[in-house]
Q: What sequence folds into this?
């Protein structure tokens, strides 16, 4: 896990100084419980991170942080809930890359996307291609051989149509030059259980979701999709290494998003709380245990990450001719 303590500390200091000049709205916020909408089922990376950060915010602010899981439509059900029920910073969203980088590719005119603003990238994690132990292969070469020999395309599960795990699975298929059949589940944790149970032979998962199953031996890791190897599995190669495509780099991030018209003083207070939480040693350890490798991007830096990942996803959508029904 990358821990840039200087950057995190600077953010806390910057936001803390800014709070001195905050209008009453920002100084008083929050005066009641805050709901964090998570657009996926419980147990996925955004849910876990929301609960870790939420616990800290409850302690800082003396107001309860409630995590509300609203899965469906590749994260859009949760995003729409946050926008529709917005109430001056008291309903916010903590989701994954999917809602803010992938969904706008398929529906750029969607009013919900325009009504939301990503204010922080809380953490990010590599993703991994895993296989059921009875799939008939245990490494990349075996996977490619099996996919080419199969009479029907091998199936892989993802967290849902239009999610980052869906698009990354399609990117893996392009890199391997094999056909794969996408099976959408209603969240990352259920999708991984599909591979554990043998409902599907393959799953494209966040490392945080897959790692316990890899450790237990209930799934077999095939390749990691980030640019660099995952420190927790140093012998597991990247897709880029295996294919010779050094530009192959897909990871998933957890973001904090609010209605676009949220008062800047409230945004500053939210980001201050997130930065303070990320500076806590126990939070850093818990995130490391969840295979997270980057923390703490705010404002323009967060927006730059969103845009870079959106462009990367758009290239896959075009190359694979992906159309959502």
A:
């Amino acid at each position: 896990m990358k821990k840039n303590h200087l950057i995190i500390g600077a953010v806390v200091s910057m936001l803390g100084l800014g709070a001195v000049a905050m209008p009453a709205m920002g100084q008083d916020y929050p005066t009641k419980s805050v709901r964090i909408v998570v657009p996926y089922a419980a147990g996925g990376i955004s849910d876990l991170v929301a609960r870790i950060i939420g616990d800290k915010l409850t302690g800082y602010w003396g107001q309860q942080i409630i995590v509300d899981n609203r899965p469906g439509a590749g994260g859009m059900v949760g995003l729409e809930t946050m926008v529709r029920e917005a109430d001056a910073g008291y309903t916010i969203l903590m989701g994954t890359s999917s809602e803010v980088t992938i969904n706008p590719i398929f529906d750029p005119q969607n009013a919900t996307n325009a009504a939301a603003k990503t204010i922080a990238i809380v953490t990010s994690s590599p993703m991994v291609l895993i296989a059921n132990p009875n799939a008939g292969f245990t490494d990349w070469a075996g996977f490619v051989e099996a996919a080419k020999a199969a009479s029907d395309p091998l199936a892989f599960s993802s967290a849902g149509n239009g999610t980052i795990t869906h698009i990354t699975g399609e990117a893996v298929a392009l890199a391997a030059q094999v056909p794969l059949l996408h099976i959408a589940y209603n969240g990352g944790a259920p999708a991984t259980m599909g591979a554990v149970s043998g409902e599907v032979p393959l799953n494209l998962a966040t490392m945080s979701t897959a790692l316990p199953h890899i450790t237990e031996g209930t799934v077999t890791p095939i390749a990691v999709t980030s640019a660099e190897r995952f420190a927790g599995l140093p012998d597991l190669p990247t897709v880029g290494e295996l294919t010779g495509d050094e530009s192959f780099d897909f990871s998933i991030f957890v973001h904090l998003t609010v209605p676009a018209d949220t008062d800047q003083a409230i945004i500053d207070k939210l980001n201050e709380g997130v930065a303070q939480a990320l500076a806590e040693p126990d939070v850093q350890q818990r995130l490391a245990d969840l295979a997270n490798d980057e923390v703490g991007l705010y404002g323009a830096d967060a927006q730059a990450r969103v845009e870079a990942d959106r462009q990367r996803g758009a290239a896959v959508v075009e190359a694979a001719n992906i159309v959502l029904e």
